[in-house]
Inverse folding.
């Protein structure tokens, strides 16, 4: 159990989940997993209230997020990373998606990015701006 008045980045390369106890309320937060190790995996299960959230992974992170964020950046460079943000209200999202798993989003204003692999972008609603480039078999799915 950790408490802090100031937090900017969490890096995890453990098989254990990093969970918030209550709402994490920070202006800018970066969550990273699997960036520096070939066998790293991780999990983030958090409730957030942030202006800016960045999630980066190069292996097999599992993210389950709820709450709200103004600007969300997701960079999945490889592997089987999954982002479940169906309960995270995001105003604007930018993504780089080369994972074989899905990114699930609840976007209110705009989503922009590129699908490089087999992983899909699943949108739980229809934001006014959807600019997605598909370079392989990953699809944009509206649910």
């Amino acid at each position: 159990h950790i408490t802090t008045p100031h937090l900017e980045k969490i890096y995890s390369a453990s098989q254990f989940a990093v969970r918030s106890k209550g709402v994490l309320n920070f202006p800018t937060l970066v969550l990273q997993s699997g960036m520096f190790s070939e066998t790293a995996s991780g999990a983030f299960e958090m409730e957030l209230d942030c202006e800016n959230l960045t999630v980066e992974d190069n292996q097999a992170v599992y993210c389950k997020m709820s709450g709200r964020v103004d600007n969300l950046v997701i960079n999945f460079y490889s592997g089987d990373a999954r982002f479940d943000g169906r309960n995270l209200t995001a105003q604007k999202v930018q993504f780089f998606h080369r994972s074989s798993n899905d990114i699930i989003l609840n976007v209110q204003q705009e989503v922009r990015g590129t699908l490089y692999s087999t992983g899909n972008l699943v949108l739980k609603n229809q934001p006014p701006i959807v600019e997605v480039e598909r370079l392989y078999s990953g699809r944009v799915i509206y649910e």
User: Anything to note?
Assistant: The first strand starts at residue 9 and ends at 12. The chain has a mean pLDDT of 94.
